[in-house]
Amino acid sequence: MISLTSPLEIWAHRVPAGAKLLALSVLTVLLFRLDPAGLALAFLAVACLYLTGGLAFAGQGARHLRLLWPFLLLVALWHGVTGQFQAGAAIALRLLTMLALANFVTMTTRLTDMIVVLTWLLAPLRRLGLSTCAVELAIAMVLRFTPMLVENGQRLAMSWRARSRRRPNWRIVMPMAALALDDADHVAEALRARGGILPPAKGGIDGT
Questions:
Q1: How many domains does the structure of the chain reveal?
Q2: Is residue 204 part of a domain?
Q3: Both 87 and 49 in a single domain?
Q4: pLDDT per residue as tens digits for the range 36-79
Q5: What is the dihedral of CA 104, 106, 108, 109, to 10 degrees?
Q6: CA–CA distance from 11 to each of 14, 15, 51 (Å)?
Q7: Rounded to whole angstroms, how far apart are CA atoms 5 and 194?
Q8: What is the span of the domain harbouring residue 75?
């Protein structure tokens, strides 16, 4: 899931999180049963789904998915070189459609609502005496901090371009890793201040 909840509220924000996650799971499985033509139609359907939220919402979703094009292009080129262009196109379309659906769900679902669904799904483990707080917190932190890592990388790339004519490429990997470790230290200190790993607060890790 590439983004957090979109500030542009649309009809999908009012759909329960459990229903959206269930629909996402079912549609993802169904995508594996489609041929390239069916996948192309499915992608167009997902694009229309974004457009139901308006051009601004669709543009925001497209900007998030823009990060995927190098990987998808590599998949398509590899299969083209090996003489399996149809299979490569199917894989690229399937991945793009699946990630677009997941991104749509994330953009229209608050993190706190996702944690509620996760807590319900993990309830059987708690009845067995197992603590699920660490799992819930870990998933919440991944969803919360992945966009921050992307944003840190973009800021480092901008800083590099302001000081050099060369492309940043791998040169920002070490500073980005240092920032990630620094953020991890701050989060660890905050958790220790709360007495260890505790369930997310009522407002959620994103403060909503």
A1: 2
A2: no
A3: yes
A4: 889 999 999 999 999 999 999 999 888 888 777 777 777 777 77
A5: 150
A6: 6, 7, 12
A7: 26
A8: 11-109
